[in-house]
Specification:
Helices cover 39% and strands 14% of the residues. The chain is an alpha/beta fold. It has 2 domains: 7-95 and 172-282, TIM Barrel; 100-161, DNA polymerase, domain 1 (Orthogonal Bundle), CATH 1.10.150.650. It has a 7-stranded mixed β-sheet with strand order 1-2-3-4-5-6-7. β3 and β4 form a beta hairpin. It starts with 6 loop residues before the first strand and ends in a 34-residue tail after the last strand. The protein binds adenosine monophosphate (AMP) and manganese (II) ion (3 copies). One manganese (II) ion is lined by residues 12, 17, 42, 138, 253. Adenosine monophosphate binds next to α6 and α7.
Length: 283
C-alpha cells in the first residue's frame, strides 16, 4: 500500500511572526499528523535548534528552513530556503543585513499610523513580539485587532498595512539573486513562496520566474495555505511549464490565524516533481 507522507515545508514560530514557540509548533504539527516539517521563520534561523530537538523528541523528521524577504522590481517577494545549513556564514550574515532595518521601518509605520489618528502602535506591536528584532506587520495587525481598530487581522492588512494604505511604508529587503545565492551556498534549495499572492500580471510573473530560475531557484509553492484552490491548478501548470519542482506548506502562523492549520492541505498533484524528490524522507 502506498503511504503518502504529510510533508509541510512552511510555517512560523515566535522567533518571527508565529504565535507558538518552536517546540510547541513541532508538537502541534506531530499531533496533527505531519510527518516532515520545515520551520521557515522570516529572516531568522533562531528557532531551528529548538525545533530540531523537539522534532527528535517526538520522532518527526525536521527540515531546517527560512523565509527570506526580497525586493524584486519594487515588489516584496518571499523566497523559502529548505534544508539549509543554519551555520552557513553567507546566509547568517545575509539575514543579519535583512533584519537590520526592521525596527526602523516599524518606527516609520507607527508614525504613519499616528498621523491618521492611531497613536503608539509601535509599543503595542512590540508588546506582542517575542523577538523584537523581527517585528513584523503581523504584530501590528494583531495589535490593531486587540485595540478594536479593526475586527480581524485580514481587515488590519486590508485597511492599514498593504501598499497604498496609511500604515504601509515601502522597504528595501534583499535582492532576489542574492537571497537565492545565500540559500544555495548554505546547501539548501530555493523555493518561490506563495506565487499566487503577489497579484502579478502574466508578463511580470513570467519575468519573476525567469529571474528566479536564472538565480538558481529550484521550486515554487503550489499547495500552500496562502493559495486559493484556483491557484493550485494555475501553479501546477506553471511549475510544469517552467520545469520547477513543487513545494507544499501550510504557512501556519498560529491557532485560529490564517487559512490553514497543520494536516489540512491537499497533497501535491501527482503530475508534479516534489522539491523533496531526492531527500531521504521521500520514501
Ligand atoms: P513583514 O515581513 O513584516 O512585511 O510582514 C509580512 C507578513 O505579514 C507575512 O508573512 C504574513 O504573515 C503577513 N501578511 C501579509 N499580508 C497579509 C494579509 N493580507 N493578511 C494576513 N496576513 C498578511
Ligand atoms: Mn508571516
Ligand atoms: Mn510569505
Ligand atoms: Mn510564511
Amino acid at each position: 500500500m502506498l503511504i503518502v507522507l504529510d510533508i509541510d515545508l512552511h510555517c512560523h514560530s515566535t522567533c518571527s511572526d508565529g504565535t507558538l514557540q518552536p517546540a510547541d509548533l513541532i508538537r502541534r504539527a506531530a499531533a496533527r499528523g505531519v510527518d516532515v516539517l520545515a520551520l521557515t521563520d522570516h529572516d531568522t534561523l533562531d528557532g531551528l535548534a529548538l525545533a530540531r530537538d523537539a522534532a527528535q523528541a517526538v520522532g518527526m523528521h525536521f527540515i531546517p528552513g527560512v523565509e527570506i524577504s526580497v525586493t524584486w522590481r519594487a515588489q516584496t517577494i518571499h523566497v523559502v530556503g529548505l534544508d539549509i545549513d543554519p551555520s552557513a556564514p553567507q546566509l547568517v550574515e545575509g539575514l543579519h543585513t535583512v533584519r537590520r532595518d526592521r525596527l526602523e521601518r516599524a518606527h516609520r509605520m507607527s508614525e504613519a499610523l499616528a498621523a491618521v489618528g492611531i497613536p503608539d502602535v509601535l509599543s503595542g506591536a512590540l508588546a506582542l513580539a517575542n523577538n523584537p528584532g523581527l517585528l513584523s506587520r503581523t504584530h501590528f495587525a494583531r495589535h490593531l485587532v486587540q485595540r478594536g481598530v479593526v475586527a480581524d487581522i485580514s481587515q488590519a492588512f486590508q485597511h492599514y498595512l498593504v501598499p497604498g494604505k496609511p500604515g504601509y511604508v515601502p522597504h528595501d529587503w534583499s535582492a532576489l539573486n542574492t537571497a537565492v545565492q545565500w540559500i544555495c551556498a548554505a546547501g539548501g534549495r530555493a523555493v518561490l513562496a506563495h506565487p499566487g499572492r503577489y497579484n502579478l500580471s502574466a508578463g511580470a510573473l513570467d519575468a519573476l520566474l525567469v529571474d528566479f530560475r536564472l538565480a538558481g531557484g529550484a521550486a515554487i509553492e503550489v499547495i500552500t495555505g496562502s493559495h486559493a484552490v484556483d491557484d493550485y491548478h494555475r501553479f501546477e501548470h506553471i511549475a510544469r511549464h517552467y520545469g520547477l519542482f513543487a513545494s507544499r506548506g501550510s504557512d501556519f502562523h498560529g491557532p485560529g490565524e490564517g487559512n490553514s492549520d497543520f494536516g489540512e492541505l491537499p497533497h501535491l498533484p501527482p503530475s508534479l516533481q516534489p522539491v523533496w524528490h531526492d531527500w531521504e524522507v521521500a520514501g
